[in-house]
Structures are given as C-alpha cells and as structure tokens.
Amino acid sequence: MALTLFRFQMYDSIARQTRLNIIKTARSVGSVHFGGSFSVTEILVAYYAPVIAKKLSFKDFIDRNTLVLSKGHCGLAVYALLNAIGIVPDEKLATYCKDGGAFMGHIKRDPSLGIGWSTGSLGHGLSISMGLAGALRFAGKSGRVTCILGDGEMHEGSNWEALLHLSHDDKFPLTIILDNNKFLSLGATQDIRPIEPIEAKIKDFSIQCASVDGHNVEALRQIIDKMEAVNQAFFINANTLKGKGISFTEGVTEWHAKRASEQDLQRMEAELKAGVA
After folding, report:
1. DSSP 20-67
2. What is the CATH class of 2-274?
3. Which of 3, 5, 34, 98 is the most buried (most CB within 10 A)?
4. Beta strand 174-180 with 65-69: parallel, antiparallel or unpaired?
5. pTM (2 decimals)?
6. Of the candidates 125, 99, 106, 137, the residue with the CA atom closest to the CA atom of residue 177
7. In this structure, is the dihedral angle defined by the CA atoms of residues 235, 34, 51 and 124, taken in order, positive or negative?
8. Which residues contact 276 (CB under 8 A, 6 or more apart)?
9. Could you say which DSSP state residue 197 is in?
10. What are the structural domain ranges in the chain?
11. For residues 129 and 136, what is the distance between their CA atoms, to the nearest angstrom?
C-alpha cells in the first residue's frame, strides 16, 4: 500500500509539473494545444513510467522503446514531460515554436529522445508505427513501438486500413493507445462523427483491446505490462477528459488551441499548485 501511494504521488507530481511546463511555454509562445496536451499527460506518464520509477535509465528505455505521437499537434506535452523528468533542459524547452528553436509546434523525429517520426498530418501515425514495428520484427531485433492516437484521428481511413492488416497478422511489437478525450477541434466527437463503441469495433478486428481510465497511471501501466508480455500488437482505449487538470478547460471545445490571457495562465497555475481540479 505504501509503495502504491508513493508511486501515485510520484506520477501525480510529474503530471502536474508537465502541465505547469505547458502553461509556462504558452506564456512565451501564445497559443498552444492545451486540450489535447492536458488529456494525454497521464498516458505519457504511464509510457515513461519505467524511467520515472528509475527501473530503467532513459537511454536504456529509448533503446527498447520508440514513440510515435500520431496526434503530433500535442508534441509540447512530450517535451514538457521530458523536461519534468530531467531529459530536456529548461533552456531547450524555452525554444519551443521559436525561430531556430529545438522544437516545432508539431512533434518531430528525434532518435536522441526516442521519438520515431515527425507527425501532425493526422491519421498516418498508426501505419508508420506498423512499419517501424515490422522493421524490428523482420530484422529479428528486440524493442517495441508505441503509437498514441487521438479520437478524431479515428475518422481517417488509413487507421482502419492498418487495423485491417493487424486483424490478419498481429505479430507486431506494437502498442496502440487511443487518447479518447471525446472532442475534436470544433466540438464533441459524438456530435460530429461518433466512433463509439470503439472497444467493440477494435475487438471485431480480432485485435486485443482493453478500455481504461486514461488518467489512472497505475491502471494504464498494468495493462501495458500485461499486454507487452504477450508479444503482439494490442490496443488500449484510454478514456480521458480534454483539458484535464484545469477546471475551466475540462471538456470545453475552445481550449483545443487557444491563446490564453495572462489571467488565464495565472489561474491555471494556481489551480495546479493548489490541486483544485
């Protein structure tokens, strides 16, 4: 019980600092993708949990794991978390989305950070991830690829083509995590083009699939560890809340990508530091 509480506090601390880093970065660059960056935060904490818990060094981790953030517009969340765990220095994060800076608005391929592909044109990350995972498989190399999708991306046909292939051959070292935050840029997914019941649809492809609270790091990590032991592709439907962590951004369409005022940013910081949301 004490160990579980310690891990919870450790993961919660990293998630909180990640969101604070996103807010700090927004102060210097203006508009960022708050909604999706906040919803994917705990998914990223779960992904990097072996490093956070000091079970693996970062180098050993990225030697074994490649990340494809298909929802590439939320790359700031990755950079903000890597800063929170001491991988990306403050001065480098401060160059985000600036001329000559280290990081662009959409995530870019960077082997030194374990990021496997430049993304942002939504709907292509899963097919790319299958290619990367297939390369490992056919070369007989160890390692695993993790692809994080957004629920709006499930409108794209290339994802279903990739799933169709996996229904025929799932022996890929591939983890697929859907950040199912229920919103697109212009409104609720259910109102624009529903994708539910997504778990049933994935299982209809005969692909292993499990649904989980996408803000419960322990639950996410348990599923990841259990499924990775099977050594085949699997899909996690991570139910999340867009804008998670801030009372006035949660489930609010306009916070998909908004230029926040200084008052907004100060209120966000105050809530996170006080543990309000």
Report:
1. HHHHHHHHHH--B-HHHHHHTHHHHHHHTHHHHTTSS-HHHHHHHEEE
2. alpha beta
3. 34
4. unpaired
5. 0.97
6. 125
7. positive
8. 247, 270
9. S
10. 2-274
11. 11
